[in-house]
Each structure stands twice: as C-alpha cells, then as structure tokens.
Design a protein that fits this description.
This protein has 11 helices and 12 strands. By secondary structure, the protein is α/β, with parallel strands linked by helices. The strands form 2 sheets. Strands 1, 2, 3, 4, 5, 8, 9, 10, 11 and 12 form a 10-stranded parallel beta sheet that branches. It has a two-stranded antiparallel sheet with strand order 6-7.
C-alpha cells in the first residue's frame, strides 16, 4: 500500500513530539468504550440521550469501536454497531464538553486523505473534542469483504500515522504532479491526539517513539495488558495518558453486582467463545472465557468502594489514571442496569477516585 499517491508525502522532516514522562499532577479520568461508546444496549434509540446524561455525570469521554457485520435483525440481544464517524458526529452535536474518540478505527479500511478530512471536520464542529484511536485493522473477515490484501496492512498503518499529522499541518502536500492543502485544519494543535491500538510489544513501543499514546481495550487479558504497558513505558510512554479498558459494573453492594451481572456474563462469554476470540494471539486465552474466570479476571465489579479499590490497585501497579469502561458488556447488559451502573460510576465512583488520586 505504500505505492499509493499519498505515500510521496511521507517523510522525516516533520518533528514528532517528545513523549512526556514528567511529574505532572495525576487526575482521574473516566471514559466509556464500545460500539455505542459504552452506551449500547438492546435498544439503540437512547444512545444520544445517554451521551447527554454521561456528560452531566462528569465522564471524560466516550470511545466508539469500529466493527462490521454485527447487529443482524434476527438477533435478540447483543450489540448493534453503527458507523463510528457518523455516530461521533451526532454525539458531538448533542454535547458540549464530552470528548468523543475511537477505540479504534481500522486503518486498513480507510483512505488516509478522506480520514484526515473527516477527523478534522469532527474536530472543527466540536471545538476540539476528538480523540483518534486507530489500529492496523487486520481482521481477515473485514479485509476480505473490503477487498484489502493483508500483506500491505502493516506498511499502510505506519504510513497513515506519518501522513495524518502532515495533512493537518499548515501548508500543502505533494500528490504526484499536483499539491493540495488538506482541509479543514483541526482545532486542536498540533492535531487531535492519536492513540494506537495494538496487541504487540513492538507497536506499543513504536507508538510512543513516534509521539503517540496507546489505548488498551478491555477485552485484552490482564497478563497481556501488563505486557503492552511494560513495552510502552519502557520505550518512554507515560502510563497516565493511556485509556485503560476494563469491563466495569457498579452496584450498591458486591453481592448485588454479582447477582445482577451474572446472566450478562454468561451470555457474553458464550458469544465470545463463538467468535473464536481466544485464537487471536495476544488478546485472551480460552480459560478466561469461562464465566467464573471472566468475572474474576476481566471485570471490575462490585460496590463503588470495591471498584475504587480494584482501580487503585491497577494505578499502583501500572500507573494508569484513565479508566475506560466497557460498560455495556457488548450490548448484553439490560438498559436499566446499564443506566444504574453509569449513575453510580459518575456520582460515587468518579469522585472517590478523583480524591484518591489527588492525595496519592
């Protein structure tokens, strides 16, 4: 893919930001992640209403997954996935402070010029509230359907992440015999933050060496999360800047959390086994998809006090300050439970963790 017209614009002359690892004040951030930004449920009609509610509850942002072929009309439960760029536009129009990001867009399925224009447009209309999460995008089902050859995706990904900051900078870029200014230019300077999604140590290190952060998705097992964070930090990355994904459910007590969440855990683990997720290297092993193991190892669940303790343990071990909650459990969590958990996250868990990190 590097022989495409935009490849001629890739070059070393744009200075990359140096990763910051200083002693900045660590403030707690709370985000949501999923096809609907962690707001998806059996009904998708209330996603935009929920976006307004989580903004009022003090959440930092929502992150939209790019998925395809999920949401058949014959399905009774589980997530329905919309176009993330269009959904982001609607969410940004309904909110004023909430950041909207992508967790993640799949580089292999996007034209870099078009993507530069669309992300910049979202940034302009939102007055600078966009976070670009992006990964190589090597799902063979998607590549086949889009007519993309897998052998070129790695080079395309790295070329794209070199191209985008250049496209957003002031001035024109050469395209063959012509030159063009990619418009519009984003509000955020030097450009919207770029978060790299990856399952490999090499790409985690590459991200920070090239001035980007990583984003850790909640479906990745903790041993793999630790491995990726270690590679990122060893290469100079700041762990406090990483949106750290976990499945999260908050209830009044530990016992009520388990009782309310357990049917969802059983349905979700059955679906994930059916996807063959454990066959993807660096993601999750099959044993953790057993419901009991999944609840213990993959989920932060319980009372606000228990959930706060579990996050602070992650902070103490890994230095993370941004909890990015897979709150809808791939759409299997019933809407009333989702709404109650979100309310407890915003009104009880968030202030507790803000105070804990301020005094840590």
């Amino acid at each position: 893919m590097t022989d495409s017209v935009y490849a001629s614009t890739v070059g070393p002359e744009i200075a990359r930001p140096v990763p910051h690892t200083g002693n900045a004040v660590r403030s707690f951030k709370l985000g949501l992640s999923g096809c609907g930004g962690g707001l998806e449920s059996i009904s998708t009609s209330q996603i935009l209403d929920l976006a307004e509610k989580v903004e009022a509850l003090g959440f930092t942002g929502v992150w939209l997954n790019e998925e395809h072929f999920q949401g058949s009309i014959v399905e009774v439960e589980g997530r329905r996935c919309h176009s993330p760029l269009i959904l982001a536009s609607a969410m940004l129009a309904r909110t004023r402070r909430l950041r909207v990001g992508f967790s993640v867009l799949l580089a292999a399925l996007h034209n870099p010029v078009r993507l530069a224009e669309e992300i910049a447009t979202l940034d302009v209309i939102s007055d600078g509230r966009v976070d670009l999460g992006i990964s190589r995008g090597n799902n063979p089902r998607y590549l086949n359907a889009y007519g993309v050859k897998p052998e070129g995706t790695a080079a395309h990904f790295k070329d794209m992440l070199t191209f985008l900051p250049r496209a957003w900078a002031v001035g024109t870029l050469p395209f063959g015999e012509a030159s063009h200014s990619i418009e519009p230019k984003p509000i955020q300077t030097p450009h919207p933050p770029i978060y790299v999604g990856t399952n490999t140590d090499e790409t985690a290190a590459w991200a920070t060496q090239n001035g980007h952060k990583i984003i850790c998705h909640g479906i990745i097992s903790m041993p793999n999360q630790r491995r990726l964070m270690r590679a990122y930090v060893d290469a100079g990355g700041d762990p406090a800047g990483v949106p750290f994904g976990r499945f999260v459910y908050v209830s009044e007590t530990d016992a009520s959390a388990r009782n309310e969440l357990w049917p969802t855990v059983e349905k979700l683990t059955t679906r994930l086994k059916g996807f063959g997720l454990f066959r993807r290297e660096g993601v999750i092993d099959e044993a953790r998809l057993e419901p009991e193991n999944f609840y213990r190892d993959m989920v932060i669940a319980g009372s606000p006090e228990t959930c706060a303790e579990k996050f602070m343990a992650l902070h103490d071990e890994l230095g993370v300050t941004y909890l990015n909650a897979l709150s809808a459990f791939f759409g299997f969590l019933p809407l009333p439970l989702l709404e109650r958990s979100l309310n407890l996250m915003g009104t009880v868990l968030r202030p507790r963790l803000e105070k804990a990190l301020a005094t840590a």
